[in-house]
Design brief:
The chain is of the alpha/beta class. It contains twelve helices and twelve strands. The longest helix is centred in the last third of the chain and has 24 residues. It binds pyridoxal-5'-phosphate (PLP).
Length: about 375
């Protein structure tokens, strides 16, 4: 009897993370000898700061790369405490900090520790797709709340109250700066939303992965307003450490031990070498600010050039490194439009349905996290292609 091949579980039937599929298609082209400009993935074009690389070399030279405590190296956790003191004038107890394998694992841990299967969690749309895909795989019910220009693409207390009134929510997750909209919530707006969530007994999760990437002003942290909120952050974006897979979460006291237990069993610890290297990232501010100045120049370039070639409407771009632009001048199917752009112009971008299944076919996301020469070449190629 021929053995039957294994069947995937029902819960594995989540949607793909389209940007990763685009990246694979772009890499296929590169393997075939083509040069592709990467404007699809939110990945800094700059390498990790020199001090980070030096710290990793030192760790390698020592050679003892081991497991760490599940919540992370104490030295790194103390450095994160110092970050909140310096940046936000907050005293966060070290016990509330968990170092994670990128914020992606942070979300996994938090969802598992705070929610049960069937719980309803609100997210905004457009929004980062992995939230909803991961929640679905974990058996959570994702409640997508459409945000629009009226509120600069931010969630408001009224929207949250309405969704909760329809059927109670257990949690709400927002990001500021947001992906793909670039929206940064004003401190008062964040405080009001958190107050509304707390009054309704809804757990507040704040994705702060794009903190320090705001063009004018700073982003408020949810920790300023409540000790009951969960904050998820990462070394991937501002700190240019995507591939090191290291991030952190700040947890309410009641969730620390549950997160620790799940982390112990899920992956034991975040990579030791990455944790040792990440410690140096907080002291590389000069280097990182000059990378950020490059993003600011790229942002200016895109905001000048995109309207001139027909992308006239886009979302705020206050922070992060994305322009989420309408493609209605060219197509009503952004998946097909992006495929053509990659094939004919050699520019990889992400189609909107990754971020918004209902309205995303009319949008494309450009990431301007690449180097200034690459972004300039991307704009030249698009101009020539659309002419
Ligand atoms: C809003 C948002 N959150 C989380 C992540 C995950 O990043 P990482 O797992 O590298 O920390 C990303 C990556 O693009 C993101 O855009």
């Amino acid at each position: 009897m021929t053995p039957k091949p294994p069947r995937p579980s029902r819960r594995s039937a989540v949607e793909p993370f389209i940007v990763m599929d685009v990246m694979r298609a772009a890499i296929d082209r590169e393997h075939a000898g083509e040069r592709v400009i990467h404007m699809e993935v939110g990945q800094p074009g700059a390498p990790a700061p020199q001090a980070v690389v030096a710290a990793a070399h030192a760790a390698l030279a020592d050679g003892r790369i081991g497991y760490t405590e599940a919540l992370g190296l104490r030295r790194l956790r103390s450095r994160i405490v110092l970050y909140y003191a310096d940046e936000h004038d907050l005293e966060i107890p070290i016990e509330r900090i968990a170092v994670t394998t990128g914020s992606s694992a942070g979300f996994n841990l938090v969802f598992l520790a705070a929610f049960d299967a069937g719980d309803r969690i609100a997210v905004t749309t457009p929004g980062y797709p992995a939230y909803r895909n991961l929640m679905s795989a974990l058996g959570l019910e994702v409640v997508e709340i459409e945000v629009n220009a009226e509120t600069r693409y931010a969630l408001t207390p009224a929207m949250l109250q309405q969704a909760h009134g329809e059927k109670p929510l257990k949690g709400v997750l927002i990001a500021s700066p947001a992906n793909p909209s670039g929206t940064v919530m004003a401190p008062e707006a964040l405080a009001a939303l958190m107050e509304a969530a707390e009054a309704l007994g809804i757990l507040f999760i704040s994705d702060e992965i794009y903190h320090r990437l705001v063009y004018g002003g700073t982003a408020a942290t949810a920790l300023q307003f409540s000790d009951n909120a969960i904050v998820v952050n990462s070394f991937s974006k501002y700190y240019c450490m995507t591939g090191w897979r290291v991030g952190w979460a700040v947890l309410p006291e009641t969730l620390v031990r549950p997160v620790e237990r799940i982390a112990q069993n899920l992956y034991i610890s975040a990579p030791d070498i990455s944790q040792k290297a990440a410690m140096a990232a907080f002291d590389a501010t000069d280097e990182l600010e000059s990378v950020k100045a490059g993003y600011a120049a790229n942002r200016r370039l895109l905001l000048d050039r995109l309207p001139a070639i027909g992308f006239e409407e886009f979302l705020p771009v206050d922070g992060a490194f994305y322009v989420y632009a309408a493609v209605n001048r060219f197509s009503n199917d952004s998946v097909d439009f992006c495929r053509q752009m990659l094939a004919e112009a050699g520019v990889a971008t992400t189609p909107g349905p990754d971020f918004d299944r209902a309205r995303g076919h009319g949008f494309v996301r450009f990431s301007f996290a690449g180097t200034e020469p690459d972004m300039a070449e991307g704009m030249e190629r698009l101009t020539a292609w659309l002419r």
